[in-house]
Structure to design on (295 residues):
């Protein structure tokens, strides 16, 4: 019964004309309990206007509360009879109402009731709007959780967003004039195959590619002058990157990433000017060779 009794005590702790009390009949209140005729435990006594009676009703919270409400007529904690129990704000409202005429008080009650109804209506409308926004938010988030694929590096903001919270592999592939569509598709398949393998292994890595020369200043800053294809692994959160040394094939790239995860790849700070420039997306086609002008 103790949890229900404690709840009852808290319910009426601020009620001026109701006291919920308990006595330790096995301790200091042993003699008092004897005088009150408490022979079994717990024994509940009800005192109304100085008259004591036994309570033999339900001993759960709801049953006890019904007894208090029906027999003790609990008053609000803040009322004209107990202004001292009011907070400063509540007392001001109470005393303002006390000064009103009956007509003024009726009008005030109607105005506040209308305001409450309007507020509840606004709450419902806001809850409806919140649900709609939540659904929209889920869809917006879902747009970013598409199946991982090898993305083209088109600008610095997307690069950093794609790599947020994880290491990213970025491959700088030969220019379309040098490698053609066939060569580019072959390199992209290597990246895609390794990405899928690492994903199966539980590794969360981003994979991007850039056309050699599209990011000339970035390539210079990262020291990729040795030619294309060139591959780096970058972690923006740690501010470090590592360069793959070797041929771009499935085994070579897989070994590079394994070595990277074991700390076997030398890392360097990302240069301050190591930012991607805006690039044009590849249309997936071969490019016509540039027209050579006659000397």
């Amino acid at each position: 019964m103790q949890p229900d009794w404690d709840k009852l005590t808290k319910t009426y702790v601020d009620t001026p004309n109701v006291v919920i009390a308990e006595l330790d009949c096995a301790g200091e209140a042993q003699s008092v309990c004897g005088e009150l005729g408490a022979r079994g435990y717990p024994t509940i006594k009800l005192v109304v206007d100085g008259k004591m009676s036994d309570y033999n009703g339900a001993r759960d919270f709801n049953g006890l509360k019904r007894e208090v409400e029906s027999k003790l007529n609990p008053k609000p904690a803040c009322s004209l009879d107990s202004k001292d129990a009011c907070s400063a704000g509540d007392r001001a409202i109470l005393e303002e109402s006390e000064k009103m005429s009956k007509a003024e008080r009726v009008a005030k009650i109607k105005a506040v009731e209308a305001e409450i109804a309007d507020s509840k209506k606004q709450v419902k409308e806001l809850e409806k709007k919140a649900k709609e926004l939540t659904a929209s938010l889920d869809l917006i988030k879902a747009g970013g959780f598409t199946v991982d694929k090898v993305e083209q590096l088109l600008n610095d903001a997307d690069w950093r967003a794609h790599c947020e919270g994880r290491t990213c592999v970025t491959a700088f592939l030969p220019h379309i004039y040098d490698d053609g569509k066939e060569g580019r598709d072959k390199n992209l398949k290597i990246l895609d195959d390794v990405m899928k393998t690492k994903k199966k292994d539980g590794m969360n890595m981003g994979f991007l590619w850039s056309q050699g020369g599209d990011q000339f200043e970035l390539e210079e800053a990262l020291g990729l002058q040795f030619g294309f294809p060139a591959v780096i692994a970058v972690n923006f959160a740690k501010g470090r990157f590592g360069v793959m040394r070797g041929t771009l094939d499935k085994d070579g790239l897989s070994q590079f990433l394994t070595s990277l995860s074991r700390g076997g790849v030398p890392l360097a700070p990302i240069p301050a000017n190591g930012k991607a420039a805006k690039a044009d997306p590849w249309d997936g086609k071969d490019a016509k060779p540039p027209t050579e002008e006659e000397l």
Remarks:
- The radius of gyration is 39 Å.
- The chain has a mean pLDDT of 90.
- The chain has three domains: 2-71, 84-109, 151-269.
